[in-house]
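Agenda item 2: zinc ion complex prediction
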Amino acid sequence: MRTAINGLSASLGKNPSLVQGPGGNVSWKDGARLHVKASGTWLADALDRDIFVSLSLPDVHARMARGEYAFAVDGGPGQSLRASIETALHALLPHRVVVHVHPVDVIARSVREGAQAAFASLMEGLDWVWIDYAKPGEPLARAMQRASDAMGRAPDVWVLANHGLVVGADDPERAWRVVEEIGSRVAVAPRRAPLQPNLERLRPWLDAGYRLPREPIAHALALDPLATETAQSRWVLYPDQAVFLGGAGLFDPGEGPDARQVHPLGPVVIVPDAGVVVADGVNPACEAMLVCYSEVLLRCGSAEDIVSLTDDEISEIVNWDAEAFRRQIAR
Ligand SMILES: [Zn+2]
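Presented output:
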């Protein structure tokens, strides 16, 4: 099981359309043990190092029965890593293998008005349920518990609004097949966007300690008008975007680095009609999230049809200690 889980984790983690940076998690249940990805580790590393922590499943269930749903600080005796912030979610599903990913296509479809009805037809025949947006960690696990209680059982597939996907299965192979099946059902063709930055206009930023992003797709945020409009008017569409790109976007209206005085937030600067720059020293998780955000926006239409996170929901995420830990250890 362990070898197959590592293979599944690495395959998921190395696919940027499913998992970005340290996002997503995998678990398996082995008798009385729950093995779950450690917070801040990358699924992509599963074949190279041990990314899992092991917890007593009866203990986790007992704590949940007492209303304790937050396990991020307890990786178990002798373990330096913290269990995933989504540990309760993994424990509440009865499936032996549980996979949680952030597929670009699922995010793009789930942020649209009327998304639940659209998924209902796309997912026909699958054992699935829709979960309205809830903050990751305890609120999300509680929302899933309520849905499960209402249905009288835990379905195999959970579509999380403005977030991603959870799949439960008997074994790693089945989990992979279900993720693939959903991927082919919900695939959205991205708009083709111009990706050539205007270096002359970006020069003031490049001379001020910023650099071009590694992946040219990020320039879509500045060069695709619909993407720029949505980023400007909506910004945060899903939790990991706020964690790794900041709770507010920084748009240079043409003043160059002086704009930092006005909007001191964010490791990424979007210069409309010119391109995108990132602060020198941003971590790979930030770059991975920049690619994901661009891919999501190229799969969304007009900003009016998009449901973003509210200011309260954003501040719950950016001011959350467990996420600060994940950001801090991001490689
Ligand atoms: Zn997630």
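Discussion summary: The domain at 2-186 is CATH 3.40.225.10 (L-fuculose-1-phosphate Aldolase).
Owner for follow-up: CH.
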